[in-house]
Amino acid sequence: MVTALADDIWWYDLTGVNATLVDDDGALTLVDTGLPWHGNELIAGLSNAGYELRDLDRILLTHFDLDHVGGLTAFDGIDVPIYVGKRDAPLVTGERSPPLGNHKGAFQRLVSPFVDAPDNDVVPLADGDTVGSFTTYHTPGHTPGHVCYVSESLSLGLLGDLVREDSGRFEPSPWLLSYDTDAVTRSISEFAERAPDFDIAVPGHGVPFEKNGSERLARLAATL
Ligand SMILES: [Zn+2]
């Protein structure tokens, strides 16, 4: 099931991890894809929201991690491009393996047998690139190629694992799950400075906010 956050925005609560469906001015956009076993739930969510699989136009990924790219296999053979931050793109395509020298990279390497490289076109995104109404913000730290997406027209920020929601507040992505926590802190501050205001904020984990999303993020940035 999906929960509507606004007329054109739906939240997938995939038990522990979030994905988002957006009707971006007619371009149906799925953001992140959960774990490998979430494929059916992702497709069921499309019909909950009133769409069919063939209506899907594109997939955006916030970063390469098993719990955000795992469900991609459900879209194999379907002609939709996958957009991802350029430093994580070679991990999605399987051209590169995660680095063993980093604790998070070593973990990614350990679970990589559960991730299949998709057949779809993979489009690397740089900071400032736009896809539909979304602008890409490179926010490294959790992973080197982590990005957030902001749509001003939808008043929506898709935050991936830059932050997580816990007890009604944003928290930085924790050390254990991040490549570099100093970079996470820097990315939160820079993103809070650079991004336009948005109300709806969907983190990769925890409950989305429907109001004052960018303000809540600025509040966190002020404490770091
Ligand atoms: Zn995650």
UniProtKB/TrEMBL annotation:
It comes from the Archaea. GO terms for molecular function: hydrolase activity. SUPFAM superfamilies: Metallo-hydrolase/oxidoreductase. SMART domains: Lactamase_B (SM00849). The keyword Hydrolase applies. Keywords: Hydrolase. The keyword Hydrolase applies. CDD domains: yflN-like_MBL-fold (cd07721). InterPro entries: Metallo-B-lactamas, NDM-1-like, RibonucZ/Hydroxyglut_hydro. Residues 16-205 form the Metallo-beta-lactamase domain. This is MBL fold metallo-hydrolase. It comes from Haloarcula marismortui (strain ATCC 43049 / DSM 3752 / JCM 8966 / VKM B-1809) (Halobacterium marismortui).
